[in-house]
Amino acid sequence: TTEPSFVVKIPPNAAPGDPLSFETPDGRALDLVVPDGVEPGSSLRLSQDPNTGSWSCVAELPTVGSGSHLSFDVVVPSDAVEGTMLHHTMDDGRVMDFAVPA
User: Fold this and answer.
1) Which residues of the chain form beta strands (DSSP E)?
2) Of 12, 46, 47, 83, whose CB is crowded by the most CB atoms within 10 A?
């Protein structure tokens, strides 16, 4: 089974903590919060495990010069509902906050 995934781009005027709304490829509404440390112009790849329904998020920061990217996996608890805020602390201490999508 293929893992459903899609990429969303953080708008130029968005800042960490700002709410954003997108539509998934299958037409479902997706609301999320711009994670801390994610800059405007960054891309977020959201992937859903078809067996567990858990989502993972990979943030790719805009590249400058040699480029950089930020990636991490997050397991969404089975009792989490749409809109539940999840927090992930990066190795450098930055906290990434995002909401469970629909």
Assistant:
1) 5-9, 19-23, 29-33, 43-48, 55-60, 70-72, 85-89, 95-99
2) 46
Sign of the alpha-carbon dihedral angle for 25, 63, 90, 97:
negative
Amino acid (one-letter) located at 48: Q
Residue 98: closest CA among 25, 45, 49: 45
pLDDT digits (tens, 9 = 90+) for 7-58: 888 888 998 889 988 877 777 777 788 888 888 888 888 887 788 766 677 7
Cα(81)–Cα(99) distance, integer angstroms = 9
Q: What does the block give as tokens for 81? A: 């509902």
Look up the pTM and report it.
0.52
The rounded Cα 14 to chain-centroid distance in angstroms is 14
Residue type, 11: P
Residue among 28, 40, 39, 27 nearest 100 (CA): 28
Closest by CA to 70, choosing from 100, 98, 101, is 98
